[in-house]
Amino acid sequence: MRLDPALQDAMLKAVPELRAFAVALCHQHDRADDLVQEALLHAIDRIETFTPGTNMTAWLLTILRNHFCNEFRKRRREVIDSDGYYVGTMTSQPEQEGHIQLAEFRRALAKLPDEQREALTLIGGAGLSYEEAAAICRCPVGTVKSRANRGRARLAELLAIDSVQDLGPDRAIQAALSGGHLRWAA
After folding, report:
1. Helices 29-45 and 56-76 sit at what angle, rounded to 10 degrees?
2. CA 32 to CA 22: how far, in whole Å?
3. b/e string for 112-133 if b means 16 or more Cβ within 10 A?
4. What pLDDT does residue 84 have?
5. Long-range contacts of 134-140 (CB under 8 A, 24+ apart)
6. Per residue in 25-79, pLDDT tens?
7. CATH topology of domain 96-177
8. In terms of Cα–Cα distance, which of 13, 19, 57, 52 is closest to 38?
9. Could you tell me which CATH class the domain 5-76 is placed in?
């Protein structure tokens, strides 16, 4: 694609301002040069969207800023993992077991008295404080705490939960996920 010489001149005249703006954004000269180059390439690729007679520098600065913001958002989600440590810790449980556990939980929750189920749903499910749950239930905070505690105890009994380890994957899966370093309790 051949650029109109006037547009090409306007782009070249904007480079010092683009570079200064890029340095102000990223505080790294080499990264600033990359941003300017990427902005110019994008501008050339999309030159048909430029309105002749408007401010070329402002248009290019907008492209540069948008590119910087998009990269910043993308990099926030990235994790530097050169030795593979984080990748090694990322596992997912088999979905079918999770569905079964959820169904068991729902059945056990349905067996609780209404007051206990309501307290657990408001505190554990909706994430409300005891005070907020008490206001909704129109009862003292201590009553909500007691209902939630009795509900948790009954759920643990119904689901045969004896310890925190019982809440997650079974011991065989835990051992596999930890690379076999899990100590088996007698």
Report:
1. 120
2. 5
3. beebbbbbbbbbeeeebebeeb
4. 67
5. none
6. 888 899 999 999 999 999 999 999 999 889 999 999 999 999 999 888 887 776 6
7. Arc Repressor Mutant, subunit A (1.10.10)
8. 19
9. mainly alpha
Domain locations in the chain as residue ranges: 5-76, 96-177
Q: What is the average pLDDT value for the chain, to the nearest integer?
A: 81
Candidate ranges 80-94, 110-124, 164-178; pick with highest mean pLDDT: 110-124
C-alpha to C-alpha distance for 12 and 31, rounded to whole angstroms: 19
Name the token pair of 10.
């306007």
DSSP 125: I
Q: What is the pTM of this model?
A: 0.43
Residue tagged 């990427």 (tokens): 38
Q: Do domains 5-76 and 96-177 have the same CATH topology?
A: no
Q: What is the rounded CA–CA span in Å between residue 110 and residue 124?
A: 15
What's the residue count for the chain? 186
Secondary element (H or E) of residue 141: helix 141-158
User: Between 182 and 27, where is the model more confident?
Assistant: 27
Mean pLDDT on 139-151: 94
